[in-house]
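Morning!

This is the sequence you dropped in the shared folder:
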Amino acid sequence: MADEMLKAEAKAFVEKNWEDIVKDIESLVAIRSVEDLDHATDEMPYGPASYEALCKGVEIAERLGLDAHNCDGHIGYADVPGDSERQIAMIAHTDIVPEGSGWTFDPFKLTRKDGYLIGRGVLDDKGPFVLELYCAKFFAERAARTGERLPYTIRCIIGNNEETEMADVEWYLERYPQPEFLFSPDADFPLICGEKGGYSATIRSGKVSDVIVDFCGGTVGNAVAGEATALVRADAAALPAAERITVEAVEGGLARISAEGIGAHASTPVGSINAIGLLVDYLLENGLFSEGEKSFLEMEKPVFGSTDGSTLDIAASDDLFDPLTCIGGTIRTVDGVFEQTIDSRYPTSITGDEITRRVGALCEAHGCTLTVDLDMVPFSTDPNSDGIQALVRTYNEYTGRNDKPFTIGGGTYARHFKAGGAFGPNDPNFPMPDWIGAEHSADEGFSEEQFKRALEIYIVSVARLAELEL
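The structure's back. Tokens below.
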């Protein structure tokens, strides 16, 4: 009976606060909180826009009655005090990836259409962040009304650097205690209990920029490039047409060749088309290179020849995770040198060192170098632990399903903590319409009804976690 009363109370709370929740999401979506290290300072370590979003998150938390703190611009947190300082925590982030191209709606103005919210960060992760705060508000109001605290302190961690290095959470864990259990509303239901290794590196050519004056593609390293452009010394009128390729003349006897692909998150590249790979093929097929550039382009062919690493000789699989993935993320011309990033999500049957050895050998054979930027080993948590089971059971009750925890190729904050997982709010069992984009995509959006249900699930889940000896 108490459980049904809790569910009824949670539902009423969500309906009562929903319009305020939408307004708070709107206020965060309006901030283009992309990492900007060129303008970073000691007070704003990830740049001014990221800092602005962090401050807005702290401001919202304070207004909701939480004990909120900005931790020197790196990260923030907001508490609902419990009977002990031991914590049940949630962590979401206020930074975003760049908007990219192809939007039908204004990416930084929240749009409500047919029961959906649309804007950059709505799903990843500003909307879920606001749900996190309102989940805590539910328990703060309950404590104020009844005078009874939970056995644990509820902590909402306000991330600010998730989309690039996750340096914020590393900074945090050097200074603050680990929670007893944590979940991150930055993924899919029913619950993610393991994540592949995360590997990123940069391939650099020698100084070869000659025929190819400039090569630029992609927006972030952890996404398949949706568009790319090469500026080459060539007669544009003499270049042939090609699918997904456009050519235009530029002053000075140059041609601008642009490619349009289909972007995707680096962890789920199936079905994508990498625009950089399209340009590599076009340049090779039409002889648009010097000898040095030819060697680099031929090295690029296996980078873009597959998304499972097979053309790089790093394909791998195991019984715990889906097979390895590997994509080329961005390319830039820097002082006559081409810099190509790669991103791989790998299972336990291969190591980052082995990926470095095999890809590094390919690079060396083509006069290039490989620099490892990040290597996070795979991790998993016990899917049968009491905390994990409490969350999955709550999800199944709300959806009438009988789903189990699973593993992914993406990397979330959850991997940094001793116990927990990534928990919604996206639900592949209830897909979005075609005109709604996924996270990191144009027209990113999410269902208001699914957001509402997710908040109810979070409230009930936290209450159930509080009953456990974690």
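Headline: The two ends are 24 Å apart (CA to CA).

More detail when I'm at my desk.
O.
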